Amino acid sequence: MADSSFDVVSKIDRMELDNAINQAIREIDTRFDFKNTGAKIELTGDKLAIEADTEERAKATLDVVKDKLIKRGVSLKHLEAGEPQLSGKIYKIASTMKEGISTENAKKVAKFLRDEGPKSLKTQIQGDELRVTSKSRDDLQEAIEQIKNGKFDFAVQFVNFR
Q: For the chain, first and last CA: distance in Å?
C-alpha cells in the first residue's frame, strides 16, 4: 500500500478577503458614526491601508474590517496590523496580509508532530508548505486534529489529502 499524505499550508482565500473588505467599505460608508470622519479602507495586493481623521475612528475602522474577516471565514492570524500613525491631519494604519508558512514555522510544526504526533509520520518542507506522509490514514487524521488544536501564531489549512 502506498503512503498517504497531506500538505499543511497557510493561504488566504482571495475572494473571501475581497468580499470582506468590500462589506467593510459599505458598512463604513453607511454607518452614522462614521459620517464625515474621512474613514477609508484600501486593499492593494497584500497591503491594507486604513485612514481616518482621529485615532479612535481609525481603530474602529480596523475593528469593522476584523469583524468582516471573521464573518467571511478569513483568519485574523493572516492580518498583521500596525499602530495608527499620524500623517499630516490623518491617522493611517498600515497592515499586511501574511500568507505562506515560513521555514521556521514549518520546522515548529514538524517538531510538534515529531514530539506529540503518531510515530509513523514523516514531514518534509516544500517551499511555503509542509508535507506530512504516513502509511496510516488514521495517523494522518490524528495529526490534522493535533495541528488544529496546537496553538500556532499563523493560520493553517490542510490540502491535497491523498
A: 12
